[in-house]
C-alpha cells in the first residue's frame, strides 16, 4: 500500500480481484474481532488481579508463552484451557449458543 492510498481504496481493489470471497473475508474479520475481545478480557482481568503472565500461567497449568499468545489474540484455546483460565482468573467459565438478534 502506497502512502497515498486510503484503506477504502485498498479494500475496493481487494474486493474487485477475481475469485475474491467477501463472505469469507467478513467471517475472518468477525473471528479476528472475537479473538481480540477475548484477548483483552484475559489481559484486563489478569491485571485487575495484579498477576504477571507467568503467575497466571502457573495458576492455570499453562506456560507463559501460551498466556502471551492468548493475550495477543493468537491461538485457539481448548475448552479445558478456558476452564483452567477462568479458575485461575477467579471467574466462572460459561459457554452458550444464542440466537442472533433479529434485524
From TrEMBL:
Residue ranges of domain HTH cro/C1-type in the record: 42-96
PROSITE patterns membership: HTH_CROC1 (PS50943)
Gene3D superfamilies per record: lambda repressor-like DNA-binding domains (1.10.260.40)
InterPro entries: Cro/C1-type_HTH, Lambda_DNA-bd_dom_sf
SMART domains named in the record: HTH_XRE
GO molecular function: DNA binding
Residues that span the membrane, as ranges: none
Superkingdom classification of source: Bacteria
Protein name: Helix-turn-helix transcriptional regulator
Gene source species: Nocardia bovistercoris
Amino acid at each position: 500500500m502506497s502512502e497515498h492510498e486510503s484503506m477504502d481504496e485498498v479494500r475496493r481493489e481487494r474486493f474487485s480481484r477475481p475469485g475474491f470471497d467477501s463472505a469469507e473475508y467478513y467471517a475472518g474479520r468477525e473471528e479476528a474481532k472475537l479473538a481480540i475481545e477475548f484477548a483483552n478480557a484475559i489481559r484486563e482481568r489478569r491485571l485487575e488481579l495484579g498477576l504477571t503472565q507467568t503467575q497466571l500461567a502457573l495458576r492455570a497449568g499453562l506456560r507463559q508463552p501460551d498466556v502471551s499468545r492468548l493475550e495477543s489474540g493468537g491461538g485457539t484455546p481448548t475448552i479445558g484451557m478456558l476452564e483452567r483460565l477462568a479458575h485461575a482468573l477467579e471467574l466462572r467459565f460459561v459457554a452458550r449458543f444464542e440466537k442472533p438478534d433479529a434485524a
